[in-house]
Amino acid sequence: MLRPLIKSLASAWSQAFNHPERLISLAALVVASGALCVSLWQLNMARQHNILSVQPLLMVTPHFAGSGGKNGLYLTNEGIGLGRITSLSISVSGKPYTGLGANQWPNILRDMGLEPLCFSIAWPTKLAALRPGTEIEILGLSKKAQPGCELAMISFLTRKDVSIELHYTSLYEEEHVFSGDAFMNL
Fold it and tell me: Which of 76, 104, 154, 166 is the most buried (most CB within 10 A)?
């Protein structure tokens, strides 16, 4: 059984040596196949690099710097690519306030027992995008804050039952999620 196989291999090699153009063609085919594999690998590596080179990193951060400073919740893009917001959800004691477009802050603040007029508010619209290095105040103290409003902001930022979930995509339509809270250790 092994003998006929060895004979056929020996016959194939002897024919190949009698026709060197076949060996050259076979070698060219092997080299071309190797070059194709290396090119496909390089293409995949370049695509991965391109995806990472435009990856956004959106987050919501609480700040309280006191009178005249940064006070409130800020939406930032710490990544190196544009981030397109696809959904925002804020939960207070398990009750969710979701959606883009219609501002949810007045309802959230009223349900928390806080005066909405104490705050300047912003809520992302549909198809909102955040370019790299951008910081937007989504909840802050009103410029016409009345006495007690600073206390209301501290009350909001020290609650442990406020959670935030932000969904966004990169330019390559990769989905990312930021999950955090508004709690600040004061």
Answer: 166
